[in-house]
Design a protein that fits this description.
The chain has 254 residues and is of the alpha/beta class. The protein contains seven helices and 13 strands. The chain has a single domain, classed as 3-Layer(aba) Sandwich (Stationary-phase Survival Protein Sure Homolog, Chain: A). A nine-stranded mixed β-sheet has the order 3-4-2-1-5-6-7-13-8, sandwiched between helices. The radius of gyration is 20 Å and the shape is globular. The termini are far apart.
């Protein structure tokens, strides 16, 4: 029997993770390990300065007072008797398109799974406040089955964004690169609390996207499922070769 680890950054009580766990049970035994509360935009943070507390919510469902990365580590290395065959993170409330992947706890959970040599998928659903999580879960099932059958290359994970629509209205899968977003009012908003002390909100509420076709954002605007393979190796190899020409001048300064 296949072993499947499921996590997220919306917390153990999010309906998205329960819809995902239920449908993935068709493929094997599912273990759910998720934060005890929302950990949105937590990135790839790992808790090193305090102990982790784990609580079993029900059979095979566990909450952790830590980040999505903590959850994947504990689930894969402590809970599961063997390395999971698949890790799926989500279903996130809201998209993780383009640059969002660098902030996303959902995507970072899948990154951590990939670092642990587990085939990993991150799943997000666009829209809200109401979501069609059951529809998104149905979309994920054949993709998860395909990954279990064919596998993923080393250091590759899949980032999946699903339109927030009934299942019958969701279009085909599109294999696309990440898009790029542009904040028109990226700013730090300063306010005062009732005691007169300053506090700040990170702004940037007006979001526009670069007008490029064949990106994850473009696929979503067409009500299609955007699937993007992400690579752990962030090295830009072509520029690395160009930078080697800097060595002579740089070394003169040392």
């Amino acid at each position: 029997m296949k072993t499947i680890l499921v996590s997220n950054d919306d917390g153990i009580h999010s309906p998205g993770i329960h819809a995902l766990a239920e449908i993935l049970s068709e493929l094997g035994r599912v273990y759910v390990v998720a934060p005890d509360r929302e950990r949105n935009a937590s990135g790839h943070a790992l808790t090193l300065h305090k102990p982790l507390r784990v609580e079993e919510i029900k059979k095979d469902f566990f909450s952790v007072n830590g980040t999505p990365t903590d959850c994947v580590n504990w689930g894969a290395l402590k809970l599961c008797k063997k390395k999971p065959d698949l890790l799926v993170s989500g279903i996130n409330k809201g998209g993780n398109l383009g640059d969002d992947v660098t902030y996303s706890g959902t995507v970072s959970a899948a990154f951590e799974g990939t670092l642990l040599k587990i085939q990993s998928i991150a799943v997000s659903q666009i829209g809200g406040p109401l979501y069609h999580f059951d529809a998104a879960a149905k979309v994920v099932l054949p993709l998860a089955r395909m990954v279990l059958k064919k596998g993923l290359p080393r250091d590759i994970l899949l980032n999946v964004n699903v339109p927030n629509l009934p299942f019958e209205e969701i279009g085909d899968f599109e294999m696309v690169p990440l898009g790029r977003r542009v904040y028109l009012d990226n700013d730090i908003i300063e306010k005062k609390d009732p005691r007169g002390k300053k506090y700040y909100w990170i702004g940037g509420t007006q979001i526009h996207w670069e007008k490029k076709v064949n990106t994850d954002y473009h696929a979503i605007t067409k009500n299609r499922v955007a699937v993007t393979p992400l690579h752990l190796d962030l090295t830009h190899y072509s520029f690395l070769e160009k930078m080697k020409s800097w060595k002579k001048d740089l070394n003169k300064t040392t």
